[in-house]
Amino acid sequence: MKRTLHLFLLSSALSLPLCVHGQTISLSKEDITTFSAQWKGERFPDGRPKVPDDLLNRMKNVSLEEAWSVLRGDGYHNQFAGDWQIIHPGQVMVGRALTVQYMPKRPDVESKIVEKGKKDGRIGGMNSWPIDMLTPGDLYVADAFGKMEWGTLIGDNLGNSIYAKSRNGVVFDGSVRDLEGLSEIEGFNAFVRGFHPSYIQEMMVTGINVPIRIGPAVVMPGDVVLAKKGGVLFVPAHLAEKVVQTAEIVALRDDFGHQRLKEGKYTAGQIDTRWTKEIEDDFTKWLDQNPNKLRMSRAEVDRLLKTRTW
């Protein structure tokens, strides 16, 4: 039997034994599949849910408030983290989470991890290991326990590598260096706790593709990350479609309401409250007349309207 190094990951909700599988310290494919069992779609070879690119693109138009409300309605109360320093505040970031946990350095533990990394052909410092695993659409999410000085996980060299592999950026509960260089990487963005000129010291990677905590939020491998100026929301993969479709229904109803208000057909009081049957019927007819506005099938729209709680 292949020898493994057992570590332990502590989170706010559970304690999980972790093993060095292949080239990473991670949950096994079977473990990740078990924790994300409600996801029924395609998966990456490592077991992470592979939410379709189309949904990721549509998620960019979802507001944090709309997504947050859907998650709250399904019992997910710990998915939002705020108070970020952002390289490009106006640039939305959406991607599939590749999670990484850092801890303060402990020599006896670190030496075993480094030893295993060398045997597996790992190159460079530990903070570069997750970068080698990134694929297009991934978003590198790291719990660096809020460390600022000597806690800079990347500079502009690693930033360029991250964008080349993922076409995306990072969310770090920690810091980065080389702000000027990072800001020049077209398409790249970073949500971090701050910026510091120091380099990474006294830190070690203790988990890749494991459950992590980012502020008050719990993040699982494969979660859809919605990062906007107002904060970062981590959407469980199985709820990504519901979040997107609900937001698109809300947008349709807003378009309809604005049009009818401009036409003077209804008052603001009628539109800005729960609609009467007359208005709902009018909205249904409006949908029939504007099929080009729908991003989903009409059957899906009708189903969502019947089951909505707002």
Account of the 3D structure:
The chain has 310 residues and is α/β, with parallel strands linked by helices. It folds into two domains: 6-50 and 82-235, Ribonuclease E inhibitor RraA/RraA-like (Glucose Oxidase, domain 1), CATH 3.50.30; 241-307, no CATH class. 35% of the residues lie in helices and 23% in strands. The protein contains eleven helices and 16 strands. It has helices at residues 29-35, 53-59, 64-73, 107-119, 129-133, 156-166, 179-183, 240-263, 268-271, 277-289, 298-307; strands at residues 6-10, 15-21, 24-26, 80-81, 85-86, 93-104, 138-143, 170-173, 175-176, 190-192, 194-195, 203-208, 212-214, 217-219, 224-228, 231-235. The strands form four sheets. Strands 4, 5, 6, 7, 8, 10, 12, 15 and 16 form a nine-stranded mixed sheet that branches. Helix 2 crosses helix 8 (240-263) and helix 3 (64-73) packs across helix 8. The chain is elongated. The N and C termini lie far apart (54 Å). The model is unreliable at 1-24 (pLDDT under 50).
Topology at a glance:
Blueprint lengths: L5 E5 L4 E7 L2 E3 L2 H7 L17 H7 L4 H10 L6 E2 L3 E2 L6 E12 L2 H13 L9 H5 L4 E6 L12 H11 L3 E4 L1 E2 L2 H5 L6 E3 L1 E2 L7 E6 L3 E3 L2 E3 L4 E5 L2 E5 L4 H24 L4 H4 L5 H13 L8 H10 L3
Parallel strand pairs: 6-7, 7-8, 8-10, 9-11
Antiparallel strand pairs: 1-2, 2-3, 4-16, 5-10, 6-12, 6-15, 13-14, 15-16
